[in-house]
Design a protein that fits this description.
- The structure holds 3 protein chains of 3 kinds.
- Chain A is α/β, with parallel strands linked by helices.
- Helix content of chain A is 36%, strand content 21%.
- Chain A is built from 21 helices and 20 strands.
- In chain A, helix 4 (100-111) packs parallel to helix 6 and helix 6 (144-156) runs parallel beside helix 7.
- The longest helix of chain A has 18 residues, at 174-191.
- Chain A is globular.
- Chain A starts with a strand and ends with a helix.
- By secondary structure, chain B is mainly alpha-helical.
- Chain B contains 11 helices and 4 strands; from the N terminus they run αααββαααααββααα.
- Chain B has helices at 10-26, 30-48, 50-75, 94-120, 123-131, 135-163, 174-205, 223-244, 266-279, 281-298, 300-329, and strands at residues 82-85, 91-93, 250-251, 257-258.
- The relative contact order of chain B is 0.12.
- By secondary structure, chain C is mainly alpha-helical.
- In chain C, helix 6 (149-160) crosses helix 8 (186-205) and helix 7 runs antiparallel to helix 8.
- Classes of the chains: A alpha/beta, B mainly alpha, C mainly alpha.
- The interface between A and C is medium-sized, with 29 and 26 residues.
């Protein structure tokens, strides 16, 4: 049965000239696993929200949306609550009540089930999703991954026939995200629930998808099976590739008549077929020479130990690390290994109980706060929203340099007034067109850039970033990467903590693997990632049997072209 | 120790506290107050432990007791037994002093009972009880309980973020500090309000606003709850009957009249007993289950289990010793 | 030294590399003078406020009736009954009667609120503001009586109407006692906070209270000192004493005055520094939630 049909749909937000959705036509069958992809702001979320009338934004709608052959507009609240489940982006904000069990029962209470039924359903859900162990807890005690799982379970408790997920893993770490997406696949597989989702982490989702819709500027530009999408995008030459999994990106850059690989496994096979072993062509990219000559150090950490409280175990153990001036250093590694703590140590928020940390050759403890955070050190928190104070982007930028009042910037040469500084900074971070908007009305990537611009107005020489790519799509990541490179060219040292190894491979100068409170190994990305066999980029995992030292998509494509 | 009374149905705990609190607030009969005081202290010791309970009582209760006991004779000059006159010519009477003490004791009792109430009547139980009568408000209540710890955590994140741009609340002059504090609060409030929009969406997505919303809870009213409720009702009826028939009448103004003490009548004795039994219900319940457990331990199958447990514990201890020796050698 | 140069250099570098882009952007973007935008926004907000006020009026006309009804029953039936019963009790009558009246006055609010099936966003707004109140009360735990609660309640009453003001107050009083301990004072605090928010809402709607900083501060001071202080002092008097005489009332007020004064000053302090920003934020939220539409 056809679950959803959209015909000739156009949608325009109030007070806007350009439609947000243009000429959308699609059909979704019962039990389908459908993925929508596209850059941030391409209208994915707007479209998904039209599949659930209570969440549909205000605006002018043309065309029709049919749910099981009836117009979705006529769907009463009860049916839509029950049959169309919608999981939103933020794990934290979706939770309404204070107890896990109460949250699970919330939807069922709304639907008016009696206690016996709710008891059964809740028990069923807790067992299916493995929630029993934390069933009676307060939601505050849960991790991000558990919270999002709880949100999913509380939707599934209502037994929806369609489950809509809007970037459900953007706030989760990679392991929690994979687990979550696996659960979604399991729901589709075991229960036959129709899944409609948008997601950045396409490598986990595409292999399971029946249909993929690629959107750009409010229109669907390609759709079909994931393999077909690979072919289509290749022929379109669209920059949407940036968001596709590595094997598909490589496929697009190489001439071949084979079908498009989706996973690393398929990618390996595909490469093997392209370059049969007997030829013996093994391309190798030479490793960059590490220049050992003495350079000025921006940050030097010497034999540092840290624990949060006297009775707790050490979080940072005997850490020694030196970072050169103008370097982009990436700290990668699993959860809870002490990466973020290390950042807080460098920033002086926490103090080590043994060992010393030098910034530009001076002990961090000898800096006064004013010295430290003006002209020296900038820290971008994980959640950029925790920096926004004012009601427009412009005022918020002025806020950090002491408001609009005195024209001259403190400590800057005479020519640069605050106005110029703010304007240029806005240009540098591509937020100049957003100056009159409220910071909270920006998208995730734009908020990130605004926060970074605020920090940069304090002219730090050392920039500490904590998970800067969290929740960003590949386009925004690319922009961020380029901005960081630009800052680096002007002598800014960047130290970032990240789970995003693809990003680190592309933009890092050196990467260090953090494990058990210490840097286990530290090297240039190429040497670092090609030396690892698990903890490395998808492109490297896919190509390591054919090419040596190819760690990014570009590397692999180059090797392929050279081999031909 | 684990309190069994708190595992009963919320209706039981709530009505228990309602009754004891009302009795302690409105009956000024000395024996009634004595019984209530005794039970309240016993139960609070049981719940909070000796140390905490004693500390609480001495640090907080004693000064309050003295102050309240003094207030009454200062302003209340009724009474027939005049002890002396104040500077302003008003008399201080024995009756008013005694009444002051009674009021003070009463206050102390109420506060001790509330310390037990706070321990037993968790927010869960409260939401259950009022989820049906005032569903929207009890949902708000649950949401507030969800938001408060969330906001506290966020406040920490924000203040760390502000610290990193050199706006620390812990140093600098007082004006700068206050300004930074206000900035942090302001960021927090915006954050809270803006993010709550998604919470509202999530409520709508799960059908909030439909007619006939039910209230689910993990509590079930079973047989043991029924039995206890009947016992409680009977005791209250007996006590109420006794109270209405004047067995525990007491008055301190203008002359002290206390019924049912000097000649200890059967009626008053029954009233006291019923009250004592009622007030001690949680303690009886706890004791009953404690005994039951002891009995279970003594029975055969569990004995085996305990033996196995002890055996394994012994083995563990051995291993621990070994480890210690190894560590020492290292 | 390096920092200044590096900033200059990097700006220059930036200009050189993307001159063309900048030109285009300059054409596209016309920064209006800031004052104009602000004024425009303020007008929008004023418009909204009027609309809300109208809506509230309409809503109130239906609902005020119901609440008045309940209130009438309470005042003319329940309260006299309670007083009669209280007199029978004897010595503890004041305490009993006052407590009962406090509870009765809150019941109509509860009933009306529950009766009209409030929407999700209304609940959220009340919950968020009450949680801010609770967190605020907890954040200043080391300064006794120096609390932002009344300020938040007043702002809630002004921005979201009398009823929301009442519930933000009552909820803050109730929930914060889950953290600080419930006691016989809970209903009094709930009522006192609630009624301050309610009055703020009513006065604002009637135009007697403007949302200017100074008026708010004056109202905040008076409300905290006389309503909150007044009610809670009476509560303790009823509890501690059997007979209510003028000297005893006077004594309890005098002994409570320093605390009430600190409390009132703290309210003024918070209203003075934060009221404008808070109201602005709430207005924006109102727009974003679409609380105006319906």
């Amino acid at each position: 049965m056809t679950e959803l049909i959209v015909r000739n749909m156009n949608f325009t937000y109030p007070e806007m000239d350009k439609p947000a959705l243009k000429n959308i036509n699609l059909e979704i069958e019962d039990g389908d696993f459908v993925v929508f992809c596209g850059k941030s702001g391409c209208g994915k979320t707007t479209l998904l929200r039209h599949f659930k009338p209570v969440l549909t934004p205000f605006g002018r709608l043309e065309g029709e949306i049919l749910y099981r052959e009836n117009s979705i507009k006529n769907l009463d609240l009860k049916t839509q609550s029950q049959e169309i489940g919608y999981v939103l982006q933020s794990p934290e904000n979706q939770i309404v009540t204070d107890k896990v069990w109460h949250e699970l029962a919330f939807g069922l209470e709304s639907l008016g089930y009696d206690s016996a039924t709710i008891r059964l359903r809740v028990a069923e859900m807790a067992s299916y999703f493995g929630i029993q162990a934390w069933f009676k807890r307060n939601v505050v005690e849960l991790s991000g991954g558990q919270k999002q799982l709880l949100n999913l379970a509380s939707i599934m408790a209502m037994h929806p026939s369609i489950l809509i997920l809007d970037e459900p893993t953007s706030q989760l770490d990679p392991i929690a995200a994979s687990d979550f997406l696996e659960t979604v696949r399991k729901i589709n597989r075991d229960l036959g629930t129709t899944i409609i989702m948008t997601e950045h982490r396409l490598e986990d989702v595409l292999p399971a998808a029946d249909k993929v819709f690629v959107m750009d500027e409010g229109a669907i530009i390609a759709w079909g099976t994931p393999q077909a999408i690979g072919k289509q995008l290749k022929s379109l030459g669209h920059d949407m590739f940036l968001s596709m999994p590595a094997p598909m990106q490589i496929y697009a850059g190489v001439d071949s008549e084979l079908s498009c690989p989706l996973t690393v496994r398929e990618g390996r096979k595909w490469l093997s077929t392209l370059f049969p072993e007997k030829d013996g062509v093994r391309q190798r990219i030479p490793l960059e020479m590490t220049d050992d000559k003495k350079e000025e150090l921006a940050v030097e950490i010497k034999d540092t130990w840290f624990r949060y409280e006297k009775n707790l175990p050490d979080v940072v153990k005997d850490l020694t690390l030196s970072i050169k001036k103008g370097e982009l250093y990436c700290i990668v590694g699993g959860n809870g290994t002490g990466k973020t703590t290390t950042i807080s140590l460098i920033a002086g928020i926490n103090k080590p109980y043994r060992g010393k940390i030098y910034l530009n050759g001076k002990d961090v403890r000898k800096y006064s706060d004013k010295e430290l955070f003006n002209n020296n050190l900038g820290v971008l928190p994980q959640n950029p929203q925790s920096l926004f104070v004012k009601k427009t982007v412009e005022l918020d930028l002025y806020e950090v340099i002491g408001g609009k009042n005195n024209k001259r910037m403190e400590g800057v040469d005479s020519e640069i007034t605050k106005k110029i500084a703010v304007e240029k900074m806005a240009q540098l971070f591509h937020i100049e067109q957003l100056m009159t908007q409220h910071p909270y009305d920006l998208s995730g990537g734009e908020q990130q850039r605004l926060a970074l611009a605020k920090i940069m107005l304090l002219k730090p020489q050392i920039l500490l970033l904590d998970e800067p790519t969290k929740g960003l799509d590949n386009n925004f990541k690319q922009e961020l990467g380029e901005i960081l490179k630009k800052l680096q060219e002007h002598g800014v040292t960047v130290i970032m903590v990240s789970h995003d190894i693809e990003f680190c491979a592309l933009y890092g100068d050196r990467c260090g693997l953090f494990f058990e409170g210490n840097i286990v190994t530290s090297n240039t990305p190429r040497a670092f990632f090609s030396g690892n066999s698990f903890y490395t980029t998808a492109a490297n995992r896919m190509s390591r049997h054919v090419f040596e030292n190819a760690i990014t998509v570009k590397d692999v494509i180059k090797c392929c072209q050279m081999s031909h | 120790m684990e309190d069994t009374f708190s595992t009963y149905h919320p209706i039981i705990s709530f009505s228990y506290f309602c009754v004891v609190l009302i009795i302690s607030m409105f009956f000024i009969h000395p024996v009634v107050l004595g019984i209530s005081l005794f039970s309240a202290i016993t139960y609070s010791v049981l719940l909070l432990g000796w140390k905490k309970s004693l500390k609480f009582n001495f640090l907080f209760m004693l000064p309050m007791l003295i102050i309240v006991a003094l207030i009454n004779p200062m302003f209340n000059h009724a009474g027939v037994t005049i002890l002396f006159y104040l500077n302003n010519g008003n008399p201080v009477t024995l009756e008013s002093i005694i009444y002051g003490i009674v009021l003070a004791v009463m206050l102390v009792i109420v506060i001790i009972w509330f310390s037990c109430y706070n321990k037993i009547m968790t927010s869960d139980k409260f939401i259950y009880l009022f989820g049906r009568i005032i569903p929207a408000l009890s949902l708000i209540f649950s949401m507030v309980l969800r938001f408060v710890p969330k906001f506290k955590a966020q406040l920490k994140v924000i203040s760390n973020g502000q610290k990193c741009i050199g706006r620390d609340v812990s140093n600098g002059n007082i004006i700068a500090r206050a300004r930074h504090g206000v900035t942090i609060l302001s960021i927090m409030i915006t954050w809270a309000l803006e993010n709550a929009i998604e919470t509202a969406d999530s409520m709508k997505a799960r059908g909030y606003g439909l007619k006939g919303r039910t209230a689910f809870s993990l509590y079930r009213f079973d047989k043991r709850d029924g039995i206890l409720l009947i016992i409680m009702a009977l005791l209250v009826v007996v006590f109420w009957g006794g109270a209405l028939s004047g067995n525990i009448f007491a008055q301190y103004n203008p002359i002290i009249i206390v019924n049912g003490v000097a000649p200890l009548t059967i009626g008053s004795l029954i009233t006291y007993t019923s009250l004592l039994l009622f007030c001690l219900i949680p303690i009886f319940v706890d004791a009953f289950y404690e005994l039951k457990w002891l009995e279970m331990r003594r029975s055969f199958p569990l004995k085996g289990a305990v033996a196995v447990e002890n055996f394994m514990l012994g083995e563990y201890k051995e291993k621990l010793k070994e480890d210690l020796v190894i560590n020492k050698n290292c | 030294m390096l920092s200044n140069e590096s900033l200059d250099e990097f700006l220059e570098g930036f200009l050189n590399t993307s001159v063309k882009k900048n030109d285009q952007q300059h054409k596209q973007r016309k920064i209006e003078p800031e004052e104009v935008t602000v004024r425009a926004e303020a007008e929008v907000i004023n418009d909204d406020v009027e609309k809300i006020a109208e809506n509230d009026d309409r809503a109130k006309n239906n609902k005020l009736g119901k609440r008045t009804w309940m209130a009438i029953i309470m005042i003319f039936v329940m309260i006299p009954l309670t007083i009669c019963f209280g007199i029978l009790i004897g010595d503890r009558k004041y305490y009993f009667i006052s407590m009962a009246i406090i509870v009765y006055t809150m019941i109509p609010f509860f009933m009306v609120f529950e009766g009209r099936k409030p929407q999700a966003r209304e609940l959220i707004v009340i919950a968020v503001l009450a949680a801010i109140g609770v967190a605020g009360r907890a954040a200043f735990f080391m300064l006794p009586q120096f609390k932002p609660v009344v300020a938040i309640v007043i702002i809630a009453g002004i921005s979201f109407g009398a009823e929301s003001g009442f519930f933000v107050g009552a909820m803050t009083g109730f929930v914060s006692n889950f953290f600080f301990g419930q006691g016989p004072w809970t209903p009094w605090q709930m009522f006192a906070f609630g009624i301050i928010g309610f009055l703020a809402g009513i006065l604002y709607k009637k135009g007697l209270l403007k949302s200017t900083k100074y008026q708010l501060c004056i109202y905040g001071f008076l409300a905290t000192f006389f309503i909150y202080g007044g009610l809670l002092n009476m509560a303790s008097l009823f509890m501690y004493s059997s007979i209510i005489t003028w000297p005893s009332v006077l004594a309890i007020y005098i002994s409570g005055a320093p605390f009430d004064l600190i409390h009132a000053v703290s309210t003024v302090f918070f209203l003075f520094i934060a009221s404008r920003a808070m109201i602005e934020k709430l207005e924006r939220i109102k727009k974003k939630y679409g609380l105006i539409e319906r």
